[in-house]
Amino acid sequence: MTAPSSSPPDTSLSAIVLVKNEAHQIRPCLETVGFADEVIVVDTGSTDDTVAQAQACGARVIETEWRGYSESKEIGCKTATCGWILWIDADERVTPALREEILAALRRTDTAGFYIPRKAIFLGRWIAHCGWYPDDVLRLFRREAGRFSDVLVHERVLVDGPVASLTSPLIHHTDPSLEHYLTKFNRYTSLAADQLYRSGRRFRLTDLLVRPIFAFFKMYVLKRGFLDGLPGLILCGLSASYVFAKYAKLWHRWQNPEDLPQDLHR
Amino acid sequence: MNRLSVVVITLNEEKKLRRCLELVRWADEIVVVDSFSTDKTTDIAAEYTDRIYRHPWQGFARQRTLGMEYATGDWILFLDADEYLTDGLNARLRKMLETDPPCDGYKIHRVEHFLGYPIRHGTLNPSYQPRLLRRGKGYWTGGAHAHIEVEGEMGLLHEDLYHDSHNTISDFISRIDYYTTVDAEDRVRQGQRAGRARVVFSPIGMAWKCFIVKQGYRDGYIGLLFSLCMGLYSFLRLVKVWQMTCPKPGSAYDADTSTSDQPIA
């Protein structure tokens, strides 16, 4: 057996970004991870000049077909060569404070992964409550220790080993515009409804009448979304709408059982 | 015998256009105004007419006005690609064009469909939609809810025109994304602002109005779902009013993330 201390710990960092048609924001994103030893962009079929922009920033671009979030992310991890992986999305920005914290964290040998608190900017406004902050996401992990769980939406990293938390936030520009939000809203609620449908989950009338109200109450009252003012109210209303749309789609799926889910593309 | 022109405005309607055009084949002329569809819409249209014109989308009133200018018939029937004539309406139109109709314009009874089910109650759109006009006797105006201006009264046709618009909830949401924007612009112009009370009560009021006041409950479950979806419509419209009237707090957060001039990787 080799003692773990016989070789110096690998403190090199691969930053990975999974993208499709992000030309409008890929540069500002990549600029904030410029401190990484290697920047990998996994492109799943952009039709704008995302790829060219990423290459101009010095990133290694892997072009691949869209095969679902988990698989696309695995591709990124397999390509990486450094000891650590920092996973970020095109709409996220690493602040200078977070950068310093990450660089320090890479030297820790007792930890396999780190949660980073995410600070969401929704339609241009920081949402400090509603259960949105701090949104701890596991984004920094040892390459050997991480893998992605296999669900269609909101996939997570699973890490073998001890996990700790960083304190500086990762900025998340969730939605530049309501139109953008609604496109995403539509896609994700379809995916979520398909997932429920395929797991055999039946529709109940309370799904439409009670669940959305409960979702609103939870965010607006229990998670104190009211402290975020009108933007908080609107966000909570949109979240209730999200729940509503998801279950309305589930109902429609059961009405048309032969109409199997086809729209699993992004 | 009056000559009939049918004006159809289209944008990516390959799935529905055929049914719409098939049922008006008997018309003397079909004019299609397409807003640069990227699917097979114009190929399908070409099987029915060679009078296809492309114009960028400028709203319902403007597209129909363009179609009207290309039309040569004595009467013009305006259709959207997702509308189609029932047999009753078809027969009525043929019959009335044989004589000289008393009015210069007609509104036709339109039955909305939601997820493939007819919604006979609970809709806010007037059930009678302006669709038939004596050429040269009126013009289109208005935004999301365009209408025809004629001198004198518009007549009513009680036979059904089917509107097969929202086949899936995804489809409904992407459509209302467009309609709520146009609608919100109108409201902002009229001075509406979004406040907390309005954001809460306006969607509830809308769902109530559709389900109870307009008797959407008579359509059963689908009426309930439709009423709730209309509540969603009202909510999204207000959110857009809010976006249009409340300036965003600068780009302070971007300053937060500015990095040094390190090269990437």
Walkthrough of the structure:
The complex is a heterodimer of chains A (266) and B (265). By secondary structure, chain A is α/β, with parallel strands linked by helices. Chain A has helices spanning 26-31, 50-56, 69-79, 96-105, 178-198, 205-209, 211-222, 229-255; strands at residues 13-19, 38-43, 60-63, 84-89, 92-94, 113-122, 125-126, 135-142, 146-148, 157-159, 163-165, 170-175. In chain A, strand 6 (113-122) and strand 7 form a beta hairpin. In chain A, helix 5 (178-198) runs parallel beside helix 8 (229-255) and helix 7 (211-222) packs antiparallel against helix 8. By secondary structure, chain B is of the alpha/beta class. Chain B has two domains: 4-166, Spore Coat Polysaccharide Biosynthesis Protein SpsA, Chain A (Alpha-Beta Complex); 169-245, no CATH class. Chain B contains eight helices and eleven strands. Chain B is globular. Residues 250-265 of chain B have low confidence and may be disordered. The interface between A and B is large, with 52 and 39 residues.
In short:
The complex is a heterodimer of chains A (266) and B (265). In chain A, 37% of the residues lie in helices and 23% in strands. Chain A has 8 helices and 12 strands.
- CATH topology tier name of the largest domain in chain B: Spore Coat Polysaccharide Biosynthesis Protein SpsA, Chain A
Average pLDDT, all residues of chain B: 89
- CATH homologous superfamily identity of the largest domain in chain B: Spore Coat Polysaccharide Biosynthesis Protein SpsA, Chain A
Count of distinct structural domains of chain A: 2
Q: Distance N terminus to C terminus of chain A?
A: 46 Å
By DSSP (H or I, 4+ residues per run), the number of helices of chain A equals 8
Number of strands of chain B: 11
Number of strands of chain A: 12
The largest β sheet of chain B comes out as:
9 strands, mixed
| Rough outline of chain A | globular
Order of helices and strands of chain A: EHEHEHEEHEEEEEEEHHHH
At the fourth CATH level, what is the homologous superfamily of the largest domain in chain A?
Spore Coat Polysaccharide Biosynthesis Protein SpsA, Chain A
User: What is the arithmetic mean of pLDDT of chain A?
Assistant: 89
CATH topology of the largest domain in chain A: Spore Coat Polysaccharide Biosynthesis Protein SpsA, Chain A
Q: How many domain modules of chain B?
A: 2
Q: Helical residue percent of chain A?
A: 25-40%
The share of residues in extended strands of chain A comes to 15-25%
Low-confidence blocks of residues of chain B: 250-265
**Which oligomerization state do the chains in this entry correspond to?**
heterodimer
Radius of gyration of chain A: 20 Å
